[in-house]
C-alpha cells in the first residue's frame, strides 16, 4: 500500500476541453508511452470545477464520466435522450463523453467533482462518504477528497487526517478496508483494466 497526500495548494488548473471554464486538476494518469500528457493520452482524471452559468459540456469521445455536486444545489444535465438529476448534492451521475449535454442551474452556481476514464482502460466509481463506517477497497487507485473541513479516516489500522480541500491518494496492490471516522469525503476509485 502506498499513500500520498495531495495538498490543495499543489493542484494544477487547466481549461475545459471546450474552453468554457477551468478545472482544478486533483490527480490523473496518462499512457506511459505518450509524447505529451493531453486528452489523447489520458487514462483517468479526477478534478473539481465550478459551473457558474448554463452551457454545453465538452465533447469527449471515448471517455466515460462520473460527476457529483459537492457545493450548491439545483444542477440538471440535459441531453437529447435523457436528463441527469443532480439537484441534490452528493448524487453521482454517469454518462459518456459523446453525449450532447447542456447544464441547467435551478439555484445558482454549483461546484462539482468529475471522475473521467478512457473507455476500456479503467473502471471507475465515485461516491460520497457522509456517515462513519467501513467499506472494502479493491486493488487499484483510490482518492479520498476532503470536501469541506478536515476528514478523518482509518485505512487498515492506521488513522489518517486529511486536511480540508486535500486528497489522500491510496494505491493498493491487494484489497483493503477504509473507514470514515469523521468529516465528509468523496471517494474516487480507479481500477486499470489489463
* CATH superfamily heading of the largest domain: Jelly Rolls
Helix/strand/pairing category: mainly beta
Q: Total strand count, please?
A: 18
How far do the termini sit from each other? 20 Å
Q: Which CATH class of the largest domain?
A: Mainly Beta
Order of helices and strands: EEEEEEEEEEEEEEEEEE
Strand content: over 45%
Pfam family, one: HutD
Organism: Bradyrhizobium japonicum
Protein name: Environmental stress-induced protein Ves
InterPro entries: RmlC-like_jellyroll, RmlC_Cupin_sf, Uncharacterised_HutD/Ves
Report on the architecture of this protein.
The model has no long low-confidence stretch (mean pLDDT 93). With 194 residues, the chain is mostly beta strands. The protein is built from no helices and 18 strands. It has 2 domains: 11-119, Jelly Rolls (Sandwich); 124-192, Jelly Rolls (Sandwich). Strand 6 and strand 7 form a beta hairpin. It has strands at 2-6, 12-15, 22-30, 42-51, 63-71, 75-78, 83-86, 92-96, 102-105, 110-118, 122-129, 133-137, 140-146, 151-155, 158-162, 167-172, 176-182, 185-192. The strands form 4 sheets. It has a 6-stranded antiparallel β-sheet with strand order 2-3-4-10-5-8, with no helix packed on it. It is globular.
Amino acid at each position: 500500500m502506498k499513500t500520498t497526500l495531495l495538498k490543495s495548494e499543489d493542484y494544477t488548473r487547466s481549461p475545459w476541453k471546450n474552453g468554457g471554464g477551468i478545472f482544478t486538476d486533483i490527480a490523473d494518469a496518462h499512457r506511459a508511452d505518450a509524447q505529451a500528457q493531453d486528452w489523447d493520452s489520458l487514462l483517468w482524471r479526477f478534478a473539481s470545477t465550478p459551473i457558474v452559468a448554463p452551457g454545453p459540456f465538452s465533447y469527449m469521445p471515448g471517455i466515460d464520466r462520473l460527476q457529483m455536486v459537492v457545493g450548491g444545489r439545483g444542477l440538471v444535465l440535459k441531453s437529447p435522450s435523457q436528463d441527469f438529476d443532480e439537484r441534490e448534492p452528493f448524487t453521482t451521475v454517469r454518462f459518456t463523453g459523446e453525449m450532447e449535454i447542456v447544464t441547467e442551474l435551478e439555484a445558482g452556481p454549483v461546484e462539482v467533482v468529475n471522475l473521467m476514464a478512457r473507455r476500456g482502460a479503467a473502471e471507475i466509481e465515485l461516491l460520497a462518504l457522509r456517515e462513519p463506517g467501513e467499506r472494502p477497497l479493491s486493488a487499484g487507485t483510490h482518492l479520498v477528497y476532503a470536501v469541506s473541513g478536515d476528514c478523518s479516516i482509518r485505512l487498515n489500522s492506521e488513522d489518517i487526517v486529511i486536511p480540508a480541500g486535500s486528497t489522500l491518494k491510496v494505491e493498493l496492490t491487494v484489497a483493503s478496508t477504509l473507514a470514515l471516522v469523521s468529516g465528509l469525503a468523496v471517494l474516487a476509485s480507479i481500477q486499470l483494466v489489463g
